[in-house]
Amino acid sequence: MCGILAVLGCSDESQAKRGSRFLLVSTRTLKHRGPDWSGLHQYGDCYLTHQRLAIVDPASGDQPLYNEDKSIVVTVNGEIYNHEELRKRFPHHKFRTGSDCEVIAHLYEEHGEGFVDMLDGIFSFVLLDTRDNSFIAARDAIGVTPLYIGWGLDGSVWISSEMKGLNDDCEHFEVFPPGHLYSSKEGSYKRWYNPPWYSEAIPSVPYDPLVLREAFEKAVIKRLMTDVPFGVLLSGGLDSSLVAAVTSRHLAGTKAAEQWGTQLHSFCVGLEGSPDLKAAKEVADYLGTVHHEFHFTVQDGIDAIEDVIYHIETYDVTTIRASTPMFLMSRKIKALGVKMVISGEGSDELFGGYLYFHKAPNKEEFHGETCRKVKALHQYDCLRANKATSAWGLESRVPFLDKAFIGVAMSIDPEWKMIKPDLGRIEKWVLRKAFDDEENPYLPKHILYRQKEQFSDGVGYSWIDGLKSHAAEHVSGKMMQNAKHIYPHNTPTTKEAYYYRMIFERFFPQNSARLTIPGGPSVACSTAKAIEWDAQWSKNLDPSGRAALGVHVSAYDPAAVPSSLTTGTSSAMLVNKKQRVMEAKAPELTISS
């Protein structure tokens, strides 16, 4: 991932005088995202800057990028997977570099603002048309790449990959909505991504496992477009294991394999003895990857919390819990010389993989919740996956959030996705069954049907309990009593949440900053709406998967929950349960290869 910062229309004379020097200082706050190159283009009162992490065409793909006469200027954070196909449509155009992002300037030249839906990839960009001094900005369909927009009192518009790039000169800033385009001519957004599922209408396409499998394999293959060393993040859960299995199967014969070899590298992080480490090692041995296992302690994680909050730019409890191990792992991966990893985010949202989906009362509620979860991904898992890796100049790619694959997954009749233990259908059954190939297995059966573990749980249960205990040492009961007065917006309801909020406000004190973070009650990562599915959940509003009482095989003891959540001083007791759901035999469904 790269970092972009644009300031457009600096009408205030004193601000304009600061010019390029001022912008170069501001863009240094994004240097971690793109340590390979710093670029700046000025035209009148408009400035476009770029911090490059070179993945494709590292020798000549420096930004900003231009059309032939440089009347169109673009700064891009992203990867355009169909850029070679798009280039072929313009034989009369002269391309200056091999960068996948250069095609954006030429597409605009041919199609104006209407070209964005032609892009297959992840992206955030700002494009300046010097012919009429107008600009557009756009963000990818789901918001895999981060983007913020702000406005200055002088009439300037600021656009940045991260909040920290937005200077105090912004009177107001906000999250740039995914799937939208902003036009300076209209001064407003318009949605360019309009899939059928966005309206939450119930789809009726029958489940076809081969269609689902082939769509995912295509999504993975696209993401092997790289000119630098890469690997996969492997937790041993279903999603990351499928990413690793499909990547291993299709790596041979690719350009990436010619450059870096056919043996895939895999990476895992966890506390000593954690569930993820054991499962990941088993998958790595099965696939024959070069496996790298990183350990951390609870204290290591606690020591990194402030850096994590600064880089992830959130005070959301779930995101911080999961971002910390990923942040620590990314530093180790980058130190090995790796610059890109493929990761498994997005599957739980598409297929209802979170354990609370066991309580969905009907297919309408199930589908509505998946739609809400996918729409909110940019505020949670996409934020974590992008910023935890980008903090160390590492790029993450997420094939489950491929635009075409989302279209296939969200068109399936949700009756097929619903969790039905009596029929042997555990969470994400449609995905598991699509890759349950008896003749040429992708994964061992017990991995393919392993119960869902949230990343913050799977790295080791004592991680979350240690965070709660640490927060309790810094947040008193009196502080909690006054929380609604200190933080009236998204008031923290636990000591852990209060602790994160204090750190966040120290780095980002602006009201605009705190408004970028979502709030509301949640259990096991649910939306507020889904809490209505079980009356007991309102008594245990913890985002851990263990809060799905009666579902997770190591669920919280309900009797211990109120004490741990209100005082933060004692770890929740665990109830060991027989793995009745996880080991259920899946019903027969024939798949021919």
From TrEMBL:
Pathway terms, separated by semicolons: Amino-acid biosynthesis; L-asparagine biosynthesis; L-asparagine from L-aspartate (L-Gln route): step 1/1
Residues carrying the site annotation Important for beta-aspartyl-AMP intermediate formation: E345
Record-annotated active site: C2 (for gatase activity)
GO MF assignments: asparagine synthase (glutamine-hydrolyzing) activity; ATP binding
Annotated ranges, domain Glutamine amidotransferase type-2: 2-187
Binding locations of L-glutamine: D100
InterPro entries, A to Z: Asn_synth_AEB, Asn_synthase, Asn_Synthetase, AsnB_N, GATase_2_dom, Ntn_hydrolases_N, Rossmann-like_a/b/a_fold
Gene3D superfamilies per record: Glutamine Phosphoribosylpyrophosphate, subunit 1, domain 1, HUPs
Catalysed transformations (reactions): L-aspartate + L-glutamine + ATP + H2O = L-asparagine + L-glutamate + AMP + diphosphate + H(+)
Binding, ATP: L233, V269, S343, G344
Keyword Cytoplasm: no
NCBIfam families for this protein: asn_synth_AEB (TIGR01536), PRK09431.1 (NF006949)
Protein name per its UniProtKB record: Asparagine synthetase [glutamine-hydrolyzing]
Source organism of the structure: Musa acuminata subsp. malaccensis
